[in-house]
Every structure is written in C-alpha cells, then in structure tokens.
Amino acid sequence: MTPTITGFERSPDGGKGLARDTRVRWALEEVGQPYEVRLVSFAQMKAPEHLAIHPFGQIPTYEEGPLRLFETGSIVFHLAEQHAGLLPGDRDARARAITWMFAALNTVEPPILELMTARIFERDKPWSEERLPLVKDRVRATLDKLSVHLGAADWLDGAFSAGDLLMVSVLLRLRMSGILDEYENLAAYVARGEARPAYVRAFAAQFAVNAPSIS
Ligand code: GTB
Asked: Which residue segments constitute the domains of the chain, with CATH numbers given?
C-alpha cells in the first residue's frame, strides 16, 4: 500500500528543505518506499479533517491504510521498523541508534529551534540583541559535545541510521546562522548526509513544490 504524507502547499522556507516533511521524504527514499504527498494550506491544517489526523494541526502526517500517524520522529521510527536500512539488526546497536533519534529531537533540536525563534520572530524586540548571544551559546554548548562524540567518524554510531537522518536534518537548520561552520566535523557530517542519493531525491521533491516561481 502506498503511504500518503502531508507537506506545506507553500513552505515558508521557499524550498530550503527545512520543513519536517523533508525528513519523512528522506526516510521513505532511504528505504525505497514510494509515497504520495497531499499538500495542505495553513487553513487546511487547522480544519477538522486534518485535525483528525494531526491533533496539533501541523505537517507532516503519514497515512498507510487505516494507520494514521503524526510526529516526524514517530513516522521515521515506523518506517525504520517496517523496512531494512535505517536501523541495525543487532539488538544493542538498534537501541543505540534509537537513542540517537531521541538525542536529535530532544537534546540537540530544542536550542536550535530557540535560535530560529530568536532570529526570525524576535529580531524586532528591543531585547533581541542582548538575548541572541545567549541563545547561540546554548546551541554551541550542545554542539561542542556532539562534535567531540562524532570525532572523525562518518556517522554517530557505526553505519548510517535513522539517528543520523534526524541529526543531520536538525543540524541543517543551523546553516544560515553560520554556527554549523564553526564545527568542521559537524559541517562535514551534514554534507555527507546531504550527499546521500536518498536525501538528494527527497530535497528535489520538496523543492519542486516550494521553489520560488520566476515570472
Ligand atoms: N513535533 C512535530 C514533528 O516533529 O512532526 C512538529 C511539527 C511541526 O512543527 N510542523 C510545522 C508546522 O506544521 C512544519 S515544520 N507548522 C505549522 C503550524 O504549526 O501551524 C516547522 C517549520 C516550518 C517552517 C520552516 N521554515 O520555513 O524554515 C521550518 C520549519
């Protein structure tokens, strides 16, 4: 059965691949699962039909027959459980890869989201200039440790896994701030993720929807 995911009819990022449907597209591409996309407007996201699938009125969602999921981490985990390629077979290695999925979403992403909020939504506030360096330092405090863990390795724990897929996706959001380039090994790690054929296909698919039209 071909699953259907949802994405923005028009992403606010204009095709940079930062909205979370890109993570789900990437996971689907990694496991070779064809999929369909239902594009939704902001109004549609808040309508009862969509709220029945996503209680918080957001994207992405995932529908596969009677199964309806929301939360990107849960969708990626479901795909990794159903298909080979995103989680190791060995019990302990699998548990560690899942730990990295949680680390990406629960430990590394929150300060990055805070930075995006500070840079985009709070930049006109009178206190913004004073707060921004503090928020940036909270991101660095996490990246310092992540960078030490990664060292010279290609991926976080052995072979590429769903943990790397989510971690690269989270770190990608830092690119515009310039902070990612302060960490040579993390910048190379993200570039390695972006070079994967599955990521290239996922990025191209969301770009085809969201690229700014030239008229
Ligand atoms: N915890 C949920 C998950 O992981 O799936 C969070 C889902 C979520 O935040 N979805 C966002 C959404 O639907 C899209 S990705 N927002 C609309 C709303 O809440 O009304 C967040 C996002 C949006 C835009 C950019 N951008 O333009 O750069 C980046 C990320």
From this structure: 4-85+198-213 (3.40.30.10), 91-196 (1.20.1050.10)
